[in-house]
């Protein structure tokens, strides 16, 4: 079972009309709803389960600029600014603390990769720097390992995934947005060649624009519209500990484990590198798209064939808007955590930081990351269908850049000058023969 997420009260009635309908109540959808509502746009958000029920509450909680793909850096700067203002913006504490993040280096090769990123980041590096020696030991008190060095960003931070998207959704509702939970979107209607409405399990909402921000479910909704979206799902496992006295304040990544402190005094912990990929029918359809990134990440992925193949086979069947959809059959995707990956991370953490020895593991869970072939999201209008916008494929980066994405989505939908250049995130790159270019710097 996933972590306990703060509740959000659903609107009692389905609105007959909205300017914009957002599909998906994770960090991306709620941030977009909030940004649109701030601008006075009549927006409705439809979530098939509960707000932040899937990956938006199951991630590490890191809010970082450091180590980003250079294409994401401008947007991550916007996001960090918004995270720093979030308490004031939404009127609630979402747990954001600029406690810093470290990427440790065991050898000169790792140091070289981090230094290369610093050069690529240029002015976007801001306060990021390499640290070593006594300064690194101070940032990682109690460590039994002497790391060669680390890339360090003091202004990067952490927030609480179980609090953030719900707080943003509640703030959006206070500004006039309609937040609908247990309300799956079954399909999108068109008229005169553009979006005209969404059909939900509770009825129809007329609208001029639709934003698909459904995480791993976005591909199915696009498929129903005849749109090709080469998106697959990667299973990432996480655990949280009971409170720990004397642990590090700064979040850190190593090849074997990663951690960050929580508001409750415990720690969120994961394997630093390993994830599992469950083979599904779409794996074969998009094999050529993902081949470049598979070559890069092969040693970090566990491939498995099992029940998810047949589950997704059933999801892919075309249904009429009057039928119960796959989105209703699975209100919250709740995959089992990969136990041996978490045990590996726990052992490595205890060996490096003895303060964690014997600390109880309070909970373990897994989530599915929506991944694209070049590991860069699509945040874009769809030229083929005016009024349709996509915000998906965040490849494990969505929580940290979520507030910035919401701002950019609102810009695109309203025709405002974009807060950053949106061209790296265009949908067309996924269907026009552009060769996927996954970032290899870190």
From TrEMBL:
Gene3D superfamilies in the record: D-Amino Acid Oxidase, subunit A, domain 2, FAD/NAD(P)-binding domain
Organism: Hypericibacter adhaerens
Boundaries of every FAD dependent oxidoreductase domain copy: 19-412
Keywords: Oxidoreductase
Protein name: D-amino-acid oxidase
GO biological process, one term: D-alanine catabolic process
Oxidoreductase is among the record's keywords: yes
Transmembrane portions of the chain: none
Pfam short name (any one): DAO
Signal peptide: none
GO CC terms, sorted: cytoplasm; plasma membrane
UniProt family annotation: Belongs to the DadA oxidoreductase family.
GO molecular function: D-amino-acid dehydrogenase activity
Tagged with keyword Oxidoreductase: yes
